[in-house]
Amino acid sequence: MSLSAVATLIVLLFYLAKCDGRLSTRCYVCRSRGEMGDCKDPFNFNDTSIKELPGLPVSVTPCPSGWCRKQTEGIRGPADEYGSATDRSCLSQAPNDGEERCAEVNIRNKVSRLCLCRGDLCNKASPSQHYGSILLIAFLTTVFLPMSNYSGH
Fold first, then answer.
1. Distance (Å, rounded) from C-alpha 88 to C-alpha 27?
2. Residue 31 CA: distances (Å) to CA of 19, 34, 87, 88
3. Which stretches within 1-148 are classed as H helix?
4. What pLDDT score was predicted for residue 49?
5. What are the φ and ψ backbone dihedral angles of 102, each rounded to 5 degrees?
6. CA distance 92 to 80
7. Rounded to whole angstroms, what are the CA distances from 15 to 54, 69, 70, 124, 136?
8. Where in the cell is it found (predicted)?
9. Are 118 and 58 in contact (CB under 8 A)?
10. Each residue's pLDDT tens digit, 46-74
11. Counting Cβ atoms within 10 Å, is residue 32 exposed (0-12), middle (13-18) or buried (19+)?
12. Which of 2, 85, 120, 143 is the most exposed place for a label (fewest CB within 10 A)?
């Protein structure tokens, strides 16, 4: 295996470990209601840009479980007189099955969309957007690893 293939593999494995929540996982923590607020989608912030928001309505917190959540209330019409709400936070423990997912749930007689994801700051987007980086890594691995077999030896 060539040196460049080994280096690529090491970088990919480190990135995969980070995506899987094994290294320093953090989650966004915030709550917005209605059209106003910084927690709602589209969520166009990163861990640096949130520090510029007046009043610091969005924070980043360490998450020991490695799992983040995003919950959107009122997905089937207004949740109440103030509109729908978006809540992002850390899960205290991982789901029993270890699967990332989104599902409709009924919480306090309101239909909500609850998304669970594993990885650093993964609750910025829905898990389907989070999978894009994993697919990219899988693609790069299938392209670069077979090339290492043709090192010319």
1. 8
2. 24, 10, 4, 6
3. 3-19, 127-147
4. 93
5. -125, 145
6. 28
7. 33, 21, 23, 18, 11
8. Membrane
9. no
10. 999 999 988 889 999 999 999 999 999 87
11. buried
12. 143
Structure tokens at 41: 């989608």
Right CATH number for 3-148 from 3.40.50.300, 2.30.40.10, 2.10.60.10, 3.30.450.20?
A: 2.10.60.10
What tokens does 107 get? 């919480």
**Rounded CA gap, 141 and 143, in Å?**
5
Q: What three-state secondary structure class fits 150?
A: helix
Closest CA to 121 of 86, 53, 70, 71: 70
Contacts of 146 (CB under 8 A, 6+ apart): none
Task: Please say whether the beta carbons of 36 and 6 come within 8 A.
Answer: no
